[in-house]
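ugh finaly. both done.
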Amino acid sequence: MRHVPEARATPAEQAARPDPASQPANGSPYRLGAALLQSLAQELSTLAEEASVLLSTPPESLSPDADAVARIARRNVPRWHFAMLNDNGRNAALVTALERGVPEGATVLDIGSGSGLLAMAAARAGASRVFTCEMNPLLAEVARSVVDTHGLSDVITVIGRPSTELDPVRDLGGPVDVLVSEIVDCALIGEGLLPSVRHAREHLLAPDGIMLPSAARLYGRLASSEAVAQLNQVTTAGGFDVSLMNTLATRGHFPVRLSTWPHRFLSEAAPLLEFDLAHDPLEPGERALSLSAASDGEAQALVVWFELDMGDGITLSNPPDNPGSHWMQGWIPLEKPVPVKAGDQVALRLCWSDFTFRVSL
């Protein structure tokens, strides 16, 4: 009988296999870290296998209706793109801001092409050249097709790389006159607005260039909601203590459509933070907050929303009382619930990285 050698595992598959001998019996933190790496390795192994199959598939057979295309699109293109493009208030505000803010004959860089909407609006506003960058290859190709369909390929160039990898001379023909950067999440910074603008302002925008938006503000209120809190924490289930699941809870802000959940506000809306996108350092930082409690209760989180200054009196915002906005609100859990009484001054510390807000007591 012919001996068939055992297939050798790929490095990713080897990494995904736990080694019981290497895991101490009482090393829970170690095991969690190892499991995290194993999970990542499994994900990479699955992607590698899928890519291997697709590389052997003729490109012409990968139509938009192909199962493989649909599967990859679901995983790699967030579904909120559809809600965003159907947000008529957002679209109208941005198009108007570009019509008023882009000088005739200007060169424009749009960070985050998406469908190509803002690039096309800039071209229609009178820009002589528009460069738009998109790090997602699928979206970049869709944007190229949309731009081409509208006959704007001679004005608009779609670059399939993040803005931080652009060379101002090689890719843009020199620093641009206008920078457009509508890359915000429910709490403003989650999609990388700060590092993207920080880099583009220094390397890609002319010294007297125009920033759209020019400023961004964060507002917030103390809030209580068991329903929302339970979206991110747990104690018991079926009579068992499963609170160790909370080691996987989101530590920073996460999106919530506040109007859909029972909740109580424990303070009035207050300005929390403002970024001058043209001049501020836009580095990670922190600041002390003092919010006045408007009613008695137990504060569980800081609910936040943003306001973008698009110039000429045009703003974009997502407060809880604007259900028409596709943007949800940001829920920043407190380290622990804080009992408050009406009239109390509640001292908090708001901390931010390049992508996440957190609140400490």
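ok and the 2nd:
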Amino acid sequence: MQPESAHALKVAFVAGVAPGKWFHRWEERFPDQPLASQMVDDAQQLAVLRDGTADVAFVRLPVDRDKEALHVIPLYEELAVVVAPKGHEIQAFEEIPLGEVEDELFEYDGGPSERLDLVEGGAGLAIMPMSVVRHFNRKDLRYRPVTGVKPYAVGIAWRREDESELIQEFIGVVRGRGANSSRQASVQRDQQEAAQKRRENLAATQSKEAKARNEASRAAKSARGGKFGTRGGKPGGGKGRPASGKGRPGQRRGR
């Protein structure tokens, strides 16, 4: 069933996340419900939820769900890679231990595109999610998996205060629930409405049956009252006496 909403569902995602498969499932399931999407920098992934720019967001974990008052569901992990300019010695290895490149890393809090610009410009090496590096596809950069670094995790987040059916439907799509899953918001609503309808029908039927029983009871009482008020077919309820002039059995008539 179509979720009830008059506006588009706004979805944000950070670079490297490929939400196309979920968007496609949404369009197949709810073709009349629009969806608006935007890519944001990691630094803005929570801000768009705070200010309402996005209803839900695919974010890089960890995030402080309690401080931000968010629901957060982890989805998957990504491989960490070290990125270097073309021609760097990392190209000679299949994977690199963190200790081998740690001294060449630089600190930067900006977006991933700018970070890659700095690597390309010779500022140093960077450790990033492999999906991000592939997303930007810089021909003058090279990358290798780096060991000794925790994988990057991706999750989906939304505000705790927003429990709309529209969002719950999208969360269900992302988590792979089928259209008829009992955990889908619209299915639960349909089940509740059907249960309410059954209760109303049952109450109406019981009321109708009770009314019929009452009418039958009144009719029976009325019928019993008429029968006992005319016993023997005569008013008053008494039995008729023997005809005068006739004696009782065994008596003789006088002369």
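summary for the 2nd one i guess: The first strand starts at residue 9 and ends at 14.
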